Predict the 3D structure of the following.
Amino acid sequence: MNRKLIRTTLAEVREREDRDTSGRRGAPDPNRKRVPPEQTHAESFYYKKQMDNKTQMILVLQDGEILRGNIEWYDRNCIKLHREEGPNLLVLKHNIKYLYKDESMERVESASEEPPEETAE
């Protein structure tokens, strides 16, 4: 019994590839998830918004120390924190555990902006 080895040619492989991608050679698979962009600029947007509004922020450092103040400026590696009760600080970002808005300061500011209620006698 003599068996014949069946091997596809390079032309057949290319033809099959073209057929699978609907005539677009090298086109990405529509079912495959796209790789997310490396830079979303969300961090820059957040810092810029807080700087423009002069929002009081609370920074919690890796060692548990809490810092309060406004973000004056930032770059890739650090944040400059403007503080009323102490000297301004340059904080390296890798030392920050997390940061958030100081809600107590927002409540005080909003209460002082509201006119006092008049009582009818």
